[in-house]
Specification:
Length: about 300
């Protein structure tokens, strides 16, 4: 039995650094978390040992695993602090790759007092990987000009050397990989209202999209500063194992209630988006949809028809 086993599917009250010290090496597939950055959130007076947290996250993350670090900067004495960038560079310094710098854009940002700057409506989502990313199930969106014939148009060869146009373009496809600016409404959906006792909860859909992207069913999803438990809640909903840690007893109680609500709701099966594999020049056909029955452990595949064979 591994040490990690006793923590799986639990919300743990405690100091996340001390809790992580009890984890085995390289056991976490995905971490999604947001620190109480720059004292923008009064996190009940607890301190935030960033460097210790980052080092433990590196140790417990699997090779090929991912950490999604959602962060922003305060404006102090007329200047943004730049703490988010300092943290990203520190993650690189201790061994992580900065795999992607993504943007979480809020469609309903809080109005701010005018101070000769534009209204802030986004946060960074730094995606760090331990080595080469192991799992990527790309989210797809509709192409604006799907099916358009590009007569005489050529692709540009974005090589390190001379850039030339040689390969003829194909008709515009129906779908493309989503960009790295993700937009969400904050605090309006019923599933997000469950977390109203916390000052800055994630939108569930943000967490859902990252879990889809970087994990498969059965993987372990971790949040060392779990707050109201959105990461654990969504992981449970999606057939992943979860671990949540928070130093606040109040927030742990909110998180446990939210997860219990999901775990007590009967679910026949979970259907993931089609997995699409890419190489440098071609797009392969989507794989069959896979559904996993919760509480029963069975699996089923949808082969393109409406029938399900179990």
């Amino acid at each position: 039995m591994m040490n990690i086993d006793k923590y799986i599917n639990q919300i743990i009250e405690g100091n996340c650094v001390e809790v992580m010290k009890n984890f085995d090496d390289e056991v976490i597939d995905l971490t999604v978390t947001s620190p109480p950055y720059d004292n923008l959130r009064n996190y009940k007076g607890f301190e935030f040992p960033f460097e210790d947290i980052a080092k433990e996250l590196y140790r417990v993350t699997k090779q090929g695993g991912v950490v999604v670090w959602v962060v922003n900067d305060a404006t102090i004495e007329g200047s943004e602090t730049g703490t988010s960038f300092s943290q990203a560079l520190y993650f690189r310094e201790i061994g992580f790759n900065l795999h992607d710098t993504m943007i979480f854009r809020k469609t309903n940002p809080i109005p701010q007092i005018y101070r000769k700057r534009y209204n802030n409506e986004f946060e960074f989502m730094f995606v760090f990987s331990k080595g080469t990313v192991k799992t990527h199930n790309p989210l797809m969106v509709d192409c604006l000009h799907a099916g358009l014939e590009l007569n005489g148009t050529t692709y540009k060869n974005f090589s390190k050397n001379e850039q030339t146009r040689e390969k003829m373009a194909k008709p515009v496809k129906d779908k493309k990989i989503k960009g790295n600016i993700w937009e969400y409404v904050v605090g309006k959906k019923q599933e997000d209202q469950e977390a109203k006792g916390h000052p800055a909860p994630f939108p569930c859909e943000l967490v859902r999209d990252h879990i889809k992207s970087w994990t498969n069913q059965g993987d372990i999803v971790f949040d060392p500063m779990s707050g109201s438990g959105t990461v654990a809640r969504v992981a449970a909903e999606m057939g992943r194992q979860y671990i949540g840690v928070d130093i606040s007893q109040e927030y742990c109680e909110i998180a446990r209630k939210r997860v219990k609500l999901i775990e007590s709701t009967p679910t026949l099966f979970i259907v993931e988006e089609p997995e699409i594999e890419y190489n440098e020049t071609t797009e392969k056909e989507a794989q069959p949809l896979t559904g996993v029955l919760q509480n029963g452990g069975f699996s089923a595949k949808l082969n393109g028809s409406n029938s399900i064979k179990v």
